[in-house]
Amino acid sequence: MPAAARDPRPLTGEPLALDLLNTRWNTEGSGRDLLDDAEGLAVWLAANGLDGAHPAGPDVLRHLRQAREALRTAVDGSPREGAPLVDAVLAHGRVRVRLTADGAAEEPEFADPSWGPAWLAARNYLDLLAKAPDRIRVCAHETCVLHFFDTSRNGTRRWCSMAACGNRAKASRHYARAKES
Predict the structure, then answer these.
(1) How do residues 86-140 score in pLDDT, each as one tens digit?
(2) Tens digit of pLDDT for each residue in 29-85?
(3) What is the spatial distance between Cα 73 and Cα 171, in angstroms, rounded to a whole number?
(4) pLDDT at residue number 171
(5) Are 14 and 71 in contact (CB under 8 A)?
């Protein structure tokens, strides 16, 4: 099988739920969607270490798109509206708790394995909510739609990337001040 193409997204490495949301982004004023096709799906699965256990296929793609919309509703909209949508994704899997020689272990189980990546993303969102719901953020730049989990010590991160959106905002403020002078 050929290696997956390079991930074109401007922000990667976020927790799984937010990384799924970040499969949509803006570039030079136009929207892009990594999950437009099977090749993009393969890129996303590989970027998150899910390509071995969950082969790219039309069902996986459809389920991930459903999970992404559920998460978008919960994160960007109303948790009340998003909860049943996220729950609908979570209904396709469960956690099996076991005792192993190394101690307690949790393993996800799916009746239909094509729900695996979508379920894992929805479950990750619940983990983020339990850990620090106030640190789930959307970039403060007005044209950016990317999400991140703020891991800064004081919890004041505003930009998906200081080098991109943060720098654009600083340059814009500088230009406005220079124009006033």
Answers:
(1) 999 999 999 999 999 999 999 999 999 999 999 999 999 999 999 999 999 999 9
(2) 899 999 999 999 999 999 999 988 777 899 999 999 999 999 999 999 999 999 999
(3) 32
(4) 58
(5) no
Let me know: does 21 contact 48? Beta carbons within 8 Å: no
HSE toward the beta carbon, residue 77, CA cutoff 13 A: 15
Tokens of 12: 């990667």
Total residue count of the chain as it appears in this document: 181
The full 3-state SS of the chain, as one line of letters, equals CCCCCCCCCCCCCCCHHHHHHCCEEEECCEEEEHHHCHHHHHHHHHHCCCCCCCCCCHHHHHHHHHHHHHHHHHHHCCHHHHHHHHHHHHCCEEEEEEEECCEEEEEEEECCHHHHHHHHHHHHHHHHHHHCHHHEEECCCCCCCCEEECCCCCCCCCCCCHHHHHHHHHHHHHHHHHHHC
Is there a contact between 149 and 127 (Cβ–Cβ < 8 Å)?
A: no
Measured CA to CA in angstroms, residue 32 lies from 27, 67, 144, 147 at distances of 7, 18, 12, 15
